[in-house]
């Protein structure tokens, strides 16, 4: 415990240590401290291998291109003057050899000739002469010498990022070698007692995490044209880590990144190691996630302490490393395309910190709708699912639902138009649908947001989703969904297509050790239940069954513990956090759990026909296909009698 | 000559052969003919090497992440219930060990604990207990099991282009291998008797061209994630070429490109070879440049006949190959960002053909101004200089100057704001300026367009340039530029900064074989002159000196032959096309020619102070610097007494 008291003492010092600065200031501090010309040298490489590299000096043409006046067309070279009298019906005749000569495109113009007649324009063409009825003006169909490139002239300036076209220009200008800035090299040192080396293909036990940040950095670095090396993970040991950092700094890399350990905890050594070997320039940026980033300089090299959480690490790379790598390599920093999006949900934010919030974005009618993704710094999947990111300024408490915010795109803008926004209840069938839609010739990406059936209806009403997963059961009518459309979407023409009849039941541990067999068992004190969130159709179903059984929510141990998806409920059961939850068969089956059937229900996708677009059409067509039904049946726990049919009010399960 | 008659006969057949189709139709024909699944297989590769590859199947998570409930903060794990009574001033005390346990971020939550108190929130912290005054709610500061990834769930759908983030997700989900589509492979066969292999570092003689298209394609292919192989150039020999194509098709490549020979000339064998080995699908597209492109299929592989001219070849790649490579590799085809630009010059176009016109684009005030670049299919430098491209539709005769057109951007939009548009007279100093501007921390790119001094003034008037190079001499006042501002830009506040006093003179062959020493010599019949275009300051200077000498333009042999730059004039002299031209010393010097001084003149950059922006400021600052003066002096033929000074009316050369 005394180690912990030491931590506590360190904590008191933390506010002194972690003095956060705005990102722009952090970048200036690093640029001021680094000697760019000393760090990144010049080298000469073959021109044809220089694509993506940056010129270190102005490049002047060695050869002209063309090096000669040449024919720009297949035809006859001639003296333009000799054709001036030609008119329709009054041809001029030129003798082959003396007065004209055949040339193919690219051929040099014979001495004394200054024009080319296109071969089609010779009205007669014999072995001895040609005749033409249209005059040729001087230099017509002639590519002049140096028309493209003049020897000695500036071809490309310094600090030019060489494109494939530029490489073509270099070669055409007779330039075989080109002076460029060295390619940047980065070494990444993964750290932490808890991290597992992915190269060993480990099976993580509780408390262990598979190290993946290095490979995210590898990909991001490659996109910046930076060579990347990862060393073996180093445990949380100050000496071992110091050795690793010293080795990396003494190696050929211009930039060294220490993965994790950049905060101010008891095992966060990055700061003290950088201080011992060189200088800490920045510890902490005014941005969340990514706040505990470190910039330092050791032996003239840039050293970066990257946070361990994947989202924080990516922010550290994108906000700090990309501008610095661009600056070091003399490239223009990439700028993300900006679009205005309408928020499907509120983004709350704390005053006093700029926040980056990732967004799932898709086109719904005329507008782009953005769903804020979870903001946990450990949520790697938010990186996968995001099409954009928005900044909540330091002086803002966030943004309201339905308000417009500016989003920076992480994908090409065209992808947003191919994204089908589905909001509402979650079912694994949506994953099957999403996967199948990606198999189309014109693929459709699903951006789905799991907010329960009622949330889906709200999204339809607000035109913030094209389709909504819904399985709302109405006790009075015994019907699904339509009574809720009438009540919550009055006056709107809502259609719905059935995805499947699915089986809901109690998900219990393998072998059902507590012998749970009916809803009444949820009242037993030893049964720990895990519930779904308010507004979820599954929760409405639970409440109905509890009422039928005469059980109040207070009698259910864990009624107030909520998860947002069937799978999350099942995971709680798998790990023993809960002994039971209500969910679909597919979730229980996927994790090898037992399933006590409780009800059959209709899982539909609702949509507004007037607002349907090509993506809706494509999805409906796919849902109607035989192969889609087959895939659902393979999941188990579903019936496909209604799958793909447009439902009618009062239809229930029939 | 009889070979030529054969060509003539072939020409008659050409209209049958070269039946052009719209690009979209060409793509459909290729996609219909190719068996994509048969051509591009599936393979399994290590997940950490999969960035940029495309999933061939849905990928489901193997591990959950986190695999356990874990602390999201450094602090104490505890039972939330035990803290509910805590209030400010009424602390709850928890014994270490039994009631709470220290945890660092990422640690698993001990059995029975369901919340974490941040270490800062412990108001007392001894070796035996902690005290807190704020309650902890259940799961507070806890990362739940499966919060990020749930084992068995869909992680990524099929046909997903894997990002660096995705690779992180794969590894975190315990996925070590991933099924992806094979990486595309392309073989390029350069052809032509006239092409020189750049790997031999040749010196081109007249009639010869350095083969560079293969390396442009290599760079463009790499950007599409396609592996690229170039074979040695093959001469214009049908047998040799057939052998090369057969070998390439029998090799591992999915796509084979024949460079040049795709048209219908006497040495264009691509079509007949593809016909002999397989099938021609398309010969000719309804697009200029790029028209003589061929698409075919041989042994199930895509075979492309690319035109030989560099711009046509690039259009063939960008319009045909990129969509087909995207389709074959299951990627979304890249879409260029669109912007509206104002044309600085008219674009004439023929009815009946869609035309692609490359544009130099830069921001001038509120608008983006685009200068159409030369449309010669051989003008590789237009590829280098273009920031965008516009399409003139098949039914259009072009676009007027000052009209708006839609441009597809070839560079990031942000680059347009860094581009300084300079229109007007050309001088090599502009190249020096352009190169120096690229050396700044915030680099500025010059987009310069050489239309003569008068053209520059017009551009200033139309706000289609930020600065204009001008050296207009007024006979009456003996002053430069200002008399022209008053006459042609009345009412506008025009400023100008001097770049240099430059020496204009007669550029003659080395050793001055014709003994040209004064303007009167231009009237000698054996002297062939090369002139500058109308509106060029140099031409105005010539006319002044001719008048002074009493010589009429008719007396000057070659007065009507025009070039647009000093360098082009000098090249004419170098190659003997002309014996003399009026131009600047720098041009003569660069090509080792002799120079007969005729006049000193002021070369200024004119601008409108009210419309100056940061780029103007940065350029002015650079022009004032001592190092800039030094660089100009090194060129020779310039005086820098006035360089960087803002000129006054009536100042002349003093």
Would you write up a description of this structure?
Two copies of one chain form a homodimer. In chain A, the strands form eleven sheets. In chain A, strands 31, 32, 33, 34, 35, 36 and 37 form a seven-stranded mixed beta sheet that branches. Mean pLDDT of chain A is 92; it is low at 1-5 and 10-16. The radius of gyration of chain A is 34 Å and the shape is flat. The first copy, chain A, starts with a helix and ends in a 15-residue tail after the last strand. Chain A is an alpha/beta fold. Chain A has five domains: 16-37 and 184-328, Molybdenum Cofactor Biosythetic Enzyme, Chain A (3-Layer(aba) Sandwich); 42-65 and 148-181, Molybdopterin biosynthesis moea protein, domain 2 (Alpha-Beta Complex), CATH 3.90.105; 70-143, Molybdopterin biosynthesis moeA protein, domain 3 (Beta Complex), CATH 2.170.190.11; 336-411, Beta-clip; 458-639, 3-Layer(aba) Sandwich (D-Maltodextrin-Binding Protein, domain 2). In chain A, helix 2 crosses helix 8 (310-328) and helix 6 packs across helix 7 (270-277). Chains A, B: Catalyzes the insertion of molybdate into adenylated molybdopterin with the concomitant release of AMP. Chains A, B: Residues 187-327 form the MoaB/Mog domain. Chains A, B: It catalyses: adenylyl-molybdopterin + molybdate = Mo-molybdopterin + AMP + H(+).
């Amino acid at each position: 415990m005394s180690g912990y008291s030491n931590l506590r003492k360190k904590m008191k010092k933390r506010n002194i240590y972690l003095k956060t600065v705005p990102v722009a200031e952090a970048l200036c501090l690093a640029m001021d401290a680094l000697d760019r010309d000393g760090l990144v040298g010049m080298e000469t490489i073959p021109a044809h291998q220089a694509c993506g590299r940056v010129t270190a000096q102005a490049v002047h043409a060695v050869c002209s291109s063309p090096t000669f006046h040449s024919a720009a067309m297949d035809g006859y070279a001639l003296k333009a003057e000799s054709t001036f009298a030609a008119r329709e019906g009054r041809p001029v005749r030129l003798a082959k050899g003396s007065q004209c000569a055949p040339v193919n495109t690219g051929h040099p113009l014979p001495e004394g000739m200054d024009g080319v007649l296109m071969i089609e324009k010779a009205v007669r063409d014999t072995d001895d002469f040609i005749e033409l009825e249209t005059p040729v003006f001087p230099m017509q169909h002639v590519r002049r010498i140096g028309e493209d490139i003049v020897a000695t002239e500036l071809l490309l300036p310094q600090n030019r990022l060489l494109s494939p076209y530029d490489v073509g220009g270099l070669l055409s200008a007779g330039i075989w070698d080109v002076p460029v800035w060295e390619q940047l090299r980065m070494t990444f040192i993964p750290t932490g007692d808890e991290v597992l080396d992915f190269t060993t293909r480990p099976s993580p036990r509780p408390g262990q995490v598979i190290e993946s940040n290095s490979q995210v950095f590898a990909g991001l670095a490659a996109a910046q044209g930076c060579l990347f090396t990862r060393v073996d993970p180093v445990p949380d040991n100050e000496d071992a880590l110091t050795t690793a950092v010293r080795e990396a700094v003494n190696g050929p890399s211009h930039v060294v990144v220490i993965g994790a350990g950049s905060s101010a905890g008891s095992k966060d050594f990055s700061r003290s190691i950088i201080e011992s070997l060189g200088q800490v320039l920045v510890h902490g940026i005014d941005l969340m996630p990514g706040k505990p980033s470190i910039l330092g300089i050791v032996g003239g090299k840039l050293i970066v302490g990257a946070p361990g959480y994947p989202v924080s690490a990516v922010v550290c790379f994108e906000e700090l490393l990309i501008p610095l790598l661009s600056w070091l390599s003399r490239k223009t920093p990439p700028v993300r395309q900006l679009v205005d999006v309408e928020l499907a949900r509120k983004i709350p934010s704390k005053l006093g910190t700029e926040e980056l919030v990732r967004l799932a974005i898709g086109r719904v009618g005329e507008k782009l709708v953005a769903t804020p993704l979870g903001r946990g710094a450990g949520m790697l999947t938010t990186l996968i699912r995001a099409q954009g990111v928005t900044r909540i300024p330091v002086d803002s408490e966030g943004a309201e639902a339905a308000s417009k915010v500016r989003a920076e795109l992480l994908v090409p803008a065209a992808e947003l138009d191919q994204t089908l926004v589905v909001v509402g209840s979650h079912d694994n069938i949506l994953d099957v649908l999403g996967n199948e839609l990606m198999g189309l010739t014109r693929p459709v990406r699903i951006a789905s947001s799991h907010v329960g059936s009622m949330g889906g209806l709200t999204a339809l009403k607000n035109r913030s989703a094209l389709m909504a997963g819904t399985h709302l059961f109405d006790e009075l009518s015994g019907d699904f969904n339509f009574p809720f459309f009438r009540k919550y979407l009055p006056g709107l023409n809502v259609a719905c297509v059935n995805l499947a009849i699915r089986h809901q039941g109690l998900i219990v541990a393998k072998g059902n050790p507590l012998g749970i067999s009916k809803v009444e068992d949820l009242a037993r004190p030893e049964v720990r239940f895990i519930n779904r969130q308010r507004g979820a159709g599954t929760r409405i179903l639970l409440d109905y069954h509890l009422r039928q059984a005469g059980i109040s929510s207070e009698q259910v141990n864990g009624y107030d513990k909520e998860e947002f998806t069937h799978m999350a409920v099942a995971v709680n059961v798998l790990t023993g956090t809960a002994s039971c939850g209500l969910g679909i068969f597919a979730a229980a089956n996927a994790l090898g759990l037992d399933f006590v059937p409780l009800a059959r229900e209709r899982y539909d996708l609702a949509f507004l026909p007037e607002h349907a677009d090509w993506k809706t059409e494509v999805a409906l067509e796919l849902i109607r296909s035989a192969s889609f039904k087959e895939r659902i049946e393979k999941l188990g726990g579903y019936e496909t009698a209604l799958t793909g049919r447009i439902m009618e009010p009062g239809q229930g399960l029939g």
